[in-house]
Description:
Blueprint: E1 5-12, H1 14-25, E2 28-30, E3 32-33, H2 55-61, E4 64-70, H3 76-82, E5 89-96, E6 104-108, E7 110-112, H4 124-131, E8 134-136, E9 144-150, E10 156-158, E11 161-167, H5 169-177, H6 181-196, E12 201-208, E13 214-218
Parallel strand pairs: 7-8, 11-12
Antiparallel strand pairs: 1-5, 2-10, 3-4, 4-9, 5-11, 6-9, 12-13
Helix pairs in contact: 1-6, 2-4
Amino acid sequence: MTSPICRLFWYRSRENFARHIDNYLQGKIHFSSWKNVNDPMEGYFTYFPQHDEISELISEKNKYKICCFSKKYSNYLLWSHYAKDHKGVCLEYEFDTRAFPDNLKKRVIKYRKEIPQFDNNEPPERQAVHMLTHKLSFWRYEEEVRLLAFEPMSLDIRLGELKSITLGLKFIDDYINNQDVDLINICSRMREFKRMFPDFEIYSINNIQPDGHLTRTKTRILG
């Protein structure tokens, strides 16, 4: 049986983290349109124009906002793609799905060789979720878990608890060698948060092994 408690990882660029750090520290996450993700085939499906009526499905699909996580903090490519060349951070959230509102779903992304096929026998509500939780197989490396919000009242929602922050390998290099306004603000806020919540952990990526595997350790660099 799947546990209702789960921990998921959200990769953010340093610029994004600096801009929204107060929301993130409060446990808030940001939902956005599925049309804004970096997969040009997101939400696509095949159908037969001669006899398939897809307008209801499209309308239903457009009512969803999404937030995308991964199962691991140590995904080398995700650090490159979503944490801006390992200069950003990876946020670890703990969620209790029993506390989710009725309009929110957690789904593990399934990967397939082809995009889904429209099915006239399935209700549009079910198909919309199906289309938004299946991706082409070359995205499998992301190990994505997705939260889907149906017509959310707000795009910034407090759903879980921020358990840790992992700093990218180049974040530490920049902290030591090239501090800027964003870095000063981020580090100041993290120090303050750590003082308020001693069990909160701050890690840093400390090693890239020959096979590309990343490891992390608790960091003392922030004092």
